[in-house]
Amino acid sequence: MDQKTFDRGLEIRKAVLGAEFVEKSLASADDFNKPMQELTTEYCWGAVWGRETLPRKTRSMLNLAMLSALNRPHELKMHIKGALRNGVTKEEIREILLQVAIYCGIPAGVDSFRVAREAFQEAEKG
Description:
This protein is mainly alpha-helical. The protein folds into two domains: about 1-55, no CATH class; about 55-125, AhpD-like (Up-down Bundle), CATH 1.20.1290. It contains seven helices and no strands. The chain has helices at about 5-15, 20-25, 35-50, 55-70, 75-85, 90-105, 105-125. α1 packs across α3 and α5 (about 75-85) packs across α7. The termini are far apart. About 25% of the residues are buried. The mean pLDDT is about 95.
């Protein structure tokens, strides 16, 4: 593991997903899933999200579309909250999900809208 990339990834991951969420994920890691947490932090958040060519808002928007298309509701909800932190508006999220519905199918769109509403409610509670 490259410590510098990991540390950069940890900083970005906490900024996007929330420090409390990330710290809880890392603290609950065991021998089985700790390597996955480290891999995600270093490569996903450090090596890719750490690149400066695309702003975080754009990366969030891309993630919402991809996670909706892949039918990953848990990750989608987490990234919707992160997208809000990155400056993506509810209106922009709606437009992304409408595009998903057209290109990936109405069921993907319907499920994504449901998850988004849950994420908005949770984000508003704090």
